[in-house]
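Q: I'm building a small set of examples for a reading group on sequence design. Run inverse folding on the following structure and report the sequence directly after it, with nothing in between.
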C-alpha cells in the first residue's frame, strides 16, 4: 500500500518539484499540503500550493494554511521574503511561471491542527515531509506534544552540518527563517517519544545542504520536460528560473539543487542517503545563529533519546535519476 504523504511547504520552486515527486511516485500518495512562510509569504505559499495542484489536475488534495511568521517574532506581522530570495524563486515564488489561480479555497482547518489530526488518525501509514521553516511542526507539537510521534516517517529539509550555509557561513535558509522552531523540532522531547514508538527503526531524517547541494537538476533534463507536453513546458519554465539563479550564485554547478525533492525521495528510497544517527542542536544566539550541529553520539542512550538521522552522504546520481523519473511519471499523467 502506498505511503500517505503530508507535505509542509513554503511553496517556492523546489517545493513545487516536491509536489510533482509525490504525485509521480507509485509508492506514495499525496494526502495534503500544509503551507508556511519562507520562500514566499504564507498567503502566497497557500496560493502557490493550490495553483500547482490545479496545474497538475489534483484539485482534490487539501491545502491547510499554516504559520505566517516565526515563533520568536514579538510583533505578529506577516513574513515577507527578502529580495535575495525573490531573485532565486521569483517575485511570487514560482519563477516566471504564470499559473491560473485555483478554483477552490484553502481548507479552514489550520496546518498545525491538520498535522496533529492526520498523525493521530493515520498513524504509521503517514509520512510527513517538511521543506520550509519548521514553524508548523513546532506549533503542532505545542498543541499536542505526542501526536507527531504516531506518524510512520518524517523527513525535514534543512540545516548544513559539514557544508557551509546558504544564508550565512553557518546557516541554511529554512533553519534561519525560524531557528526557535527548528530547535524545538530537531532537538525537542518528542523525538524520544518517537524513537520509543518506533523502537529506533524509523528515525526522523534531516536532509541538509550536505546532500541536497550534490543532487542536481540540469537544463538538459528540463528541456526534455518541455518536449513532453504542455505541463512539462510549464515545469521547465519554473525550473529554468531556478537554474538561472544557481548559475549566478553557484557558477560551478551545472544546474540547480534538488533540495526539497530529495527530502521526499528518502521516504520511498531511504537508501539514497546515509549519515550518523545522533542528537542535533540548533545554535540560537550570536553570529552562528541557526547553525545546526551533530551532538556527540558516543553515549549508549543516544539511540533512545533525541537521535535523528543526519544525512551527510548521498548517492547523488541515483538520487537525481530517481527524482527525475518520478517527476516524469507525474508529467505523463498530465496534458
Ligand atoms: Ca522549501
Amino acid at each position: 500500500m502506498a505511503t500517505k504523504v503530508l507535505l509542509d511547504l513554503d511553496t517556492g520552486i523546489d517545493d513545487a518539484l516536491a509536489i510533482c515527486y509525490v504525485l509521480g511516485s507509485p509508492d506514495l500518495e499525496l494526502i495534503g499540503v500544509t503551507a508556511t512562510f519562507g520562500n514566499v509569504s504564507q498567503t502566497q505559499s497557500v496560493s502557490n500550493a493550490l495553483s500547482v495542484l490545479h496545474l497538475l489536475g489534483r484539485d482534490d488534495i487539501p491545502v491547510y494554511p499554516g504559520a505566517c511568521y516565526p515563533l520568536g517574532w514579538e510583533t505578529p506581522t506577516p513574513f515577507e521574503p527578502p529580495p535575495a530570495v525573490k531573485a532565486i524563486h521569483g517575485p511570487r515564488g514560482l519563477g516566471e511561471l504564470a499559473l491560473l489561480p485555483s478554483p477552490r479555497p484553502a481548507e479552514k482547518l489550520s496546518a498545525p491542527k491538520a498535522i496533529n489530526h492526520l498523525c493521530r488518525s493515520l498513524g504509521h501509514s503517514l509520512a510527513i515531509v517538511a521543506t520550509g521553516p519548521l514553524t508548523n511542526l513546532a506549533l503542532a507539537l505545542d498543541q499536542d506534544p505526542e501526536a507527531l510521534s504516531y506518524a510512520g516517517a518524517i523527513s525535514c529539509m534543512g540545516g548544513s552540518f559539514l557544508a557551509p550555509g546558504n544564508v550565512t557561513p553557518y546557516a541554511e535558509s529554512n533553519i534561519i527563517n525560524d531557528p526557535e522552531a527548528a530547535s524545538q523540532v530537531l532537538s525537542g522531547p518528542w523525538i524520544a517519544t518517537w524513537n520509543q514508538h518506533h523502537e529506533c527503526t524509523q528515525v526522523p531524517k534531516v536532509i541538509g545542504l550536505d546532500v541536497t547541494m550534490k543532487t542536481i537538476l540540469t537544463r538538459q533534463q528540463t528541456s526534455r520536460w518541455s518536449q513532453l507536453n504542455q505541463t512539462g513546458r510549464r515545469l521547465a519554465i519554473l525550473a529554468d528560473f531556478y537554474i538561472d539563479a544557481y548559475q549566478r550564485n553557484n557558477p560551478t554547478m551545472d544546474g540547480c539543487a534538488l533540495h526539497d525533492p530529495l527530502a521526499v525521495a528518502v521516504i520511498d528510497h531511504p537508501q539514497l542517503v546515509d549519515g550518523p544517527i545522533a542528537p542535533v542542536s540548533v545554535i540560537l544566539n550570536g553570529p552562528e545563529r541557526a547553525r545546526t550541529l551533530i551532538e556527540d553520539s558516543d553515549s549508549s542512550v543516544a539511540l533512545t533519546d533525541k537521535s535523528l538521522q543526519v544525512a551527510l552522504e548521498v548517492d547523488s546520481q541515483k538520487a537525481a535519476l530517481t527524482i527525475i523519473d518520478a517527476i516524469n511519471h507525474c508529467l505523463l499523467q498530465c496534458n
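The chain has a mean pLDDT of 95.
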